User: Fold this.
Amino acid sequence: MSVLSSGLPEHIDDEENLARFLTSSSHFNSIMVKAAAFFPNPSDGQTSVSRHGAQPSETLWEIGSHAAGTRTLHGAAIFKAQHVREAMLDVLAKEPPPRHANITNWPTSAKDSDLERAQRKECALILARHAILLRR
Amino acid sequence: MPGTISKIKYAAGLTVATLTVAPPCGHAISSEARLVYARTSEVQDFAEQSQALFGEKASAISQIHELAEEYAEQNWDGENALAISPTAIQTAIDFIRLLPKDIPLPEFAPEPDGAISLDWIESRHKVFSLSIGESNRLAFAWLDGTSQGHGVEYFDGEEIPSKVLYGIKDTMNYERSLLRAA
Assistant:
C-alpha cells in the first residue's frame, strides 16, 4: 500500500473521519449541516475534504484556517468515508496540501442538469444525515 | 356604537385603516347591529391574519435578498462557486409568495452553482430540500428515516407543484400539526 507525503496511506479506509470545512453560516443550523455544504465544486465536480484522524482539533482548525483563507471558518462537518460510499460516491486522496482528499463520482446527466442537481442533492442529504457539526 | 379606527403600517409603506368595534351589549341591540358586529369582526380577523402572513413572508423574502447580497461575488467559497443568479432570486421569491399560509417557511442556503437551496428540516433524519436555479424546473430531494429520494418538477411561477407541496407537508408533519392546533 503506497504512503503519501503526509504519512497517510493513499487508500482511505471506510472508518476514516473526513472534515468538510464550513465557511458559510447558511450551511448549517442548530440541528444539522445542510446538504448545500457538500455540493461539488462546479468547475471540477468534486468536493474538497480533509482527512481528520486522531490529531488534536487545533491541527484541524489550523488546516481549516489555511483552506478558508480570508473567509470566516465557522466549523467543520465530520463524517466517515463509509458514509460517502453509502451515498454511492467515493473519496480519493489528493495531496498536496497534506491530508487533502476529494469526494468524487457525483452523478452526472449531460441531458438534464436539473435531474443531475436532484440526484446530487439526494447524495448530499445522505452525507448531511451522518455529519456531525463541529463548531470552531 | 363605540369603536376605534386604527391604522396598520406595512413594511412596503402601505397603510390600511381598520375598524375595531366593541361587542354589542345590553338588550336594546338590533339584529342588524349584531350582524354588523359579526361581519366587522370577520374583517378584523382577516386583516390580522394577513398582517401576520405578510410579516413572515416579508421576512423570508428579506432573507433571500440578504443571501443574494452576501453571495453576489463569484468564488464566494474559495472553490470557484458561482454568484447567486438573479433568476434564482426572483424564482425563489415567487415560490415563497405562493406557499400556502399554513406551510412553514424554509431556511435558505447558497449552492456553489448559483442556485438557492430551500430547506425544511424537521430533524437530521427528516429533511426536504429544494433547489431553485436558472431553469423553470425545481430539483428536490428528501430524507425520511432511512429512505430517501429525489425528483424534478416544472414550476410556472403561478402554482407550486403538488408533489413539492406534498413533500414539504410530509416532512414537516403537516397533518399532525393541524390536528394539534385543532
